[in-house]
Amino acid sequence: MSESKHDLARFAEIEQLVNSISDIPDSGARSVCVELLTRLLELHGAGLERIVSMISQSGAAGADIVQRLTRDDLAASLLLLYGLHPTDFETRVKQALDKVRPQLKSHGGDVALLGIDDGAVRLRLDGSCHGCPSSSLTLRNVIEEAIYAAAPDIASLEVAGVEDRPHAHGGFVPLQILQGNGHAVR
Q: Which regions in the chain score pLDDT beneath 70?
């Protein structure tokens, strides 16, 4: 399992455990669990804030370390969790879109940021993947994954659809394209 998938699995396990606290029948035990979790998060947040502050005070080398932390999925998610991520929400969304644009363009698509309001992101998909029957869904999934990875603190995501352009083959997709080599049999 890759490091990122392992981290996601750990987050999912933690989320399940936290959600199971509400299933504890004893209200006193439930309260103790919630209080313990709250105190641990506060302690970890204060410690992480102190660490980031010390690193940031180390001049150019410290600034470089903080930037490297923002590019690491696990470290960045912790910085976000504790409100310490140095890159603002809108910039992170724009960076995510810039990151996927080459992939979208290779499939004949693009994305436009229509607006961001209180954590709600509005996008419009343009173009489509020629010869791909599920191009809109594919493009949408690529974009959503990138945005949720860069900005998990998003409140909502609205994606206006894609207008599929007619295929160069008049609706017919040659067998060779479906097989993946992209060349039609002549």
A: 1-3, 128-136, 162-186
